[in-house]
């Protein structure tokens, strides 16, 4: 391929400077300039490392909201689909992301809570990190029954097709 480009550039009357992906510089001057810039950037990171870290921390903390529950509050519990399950069609927006609501029994640590789980989830540990919980603001009448969803001990559910609407056979060459 390189012979083609050399002959092509020669036919056009242009000069071709070949380089590789690992060493994209074509002369010593470019290499020295790049090395100087790397040294300057490293020095800048050392001098301004804490300032950059503080700036990133402040940006992250602006978006973060502390989430606290009181005993006897209602919380929704996050679930996720099994990885590696063959999906039929796209993952729909109507798949459950949270189940519940469940009653908060106790605050175990600063960011961990113990929930009162039903008998179907008895194999699951009842203490959860606050990132897996969401405040429940709805009525108990809107509760999703767990009989419709099959959840394992790691709070993963399986997506199963209800019916196959159509099929097609493709013959490849």
From TrEMBL:
Does Zinc appear among the keywords?
no
One example of the protein's molecular function in GO is: RNA-directed DNA polymerase activity
Keyword annotations for this protein, in alphabetical order, are: Nucleotidyltransferase, RNA-directed DNA polymerase, Transferase
Instruction: Provide the Tf2-1-like SH3-like domain boundaries.
Output: 73-136
Which Gene3D superfamilies does UniProt cross-reference here?
A: Ribonuclease H-like superfamily/Ribonuclease H (3.30.420.10)
Which protein are we looking at?
Answer: Reverse transcriptase domain-containing protein
Q: Which Pfam families match?
A: SH3_Tf2-1
The record, for SUPFAM superfamilies, names:
Ribonuclease H-like
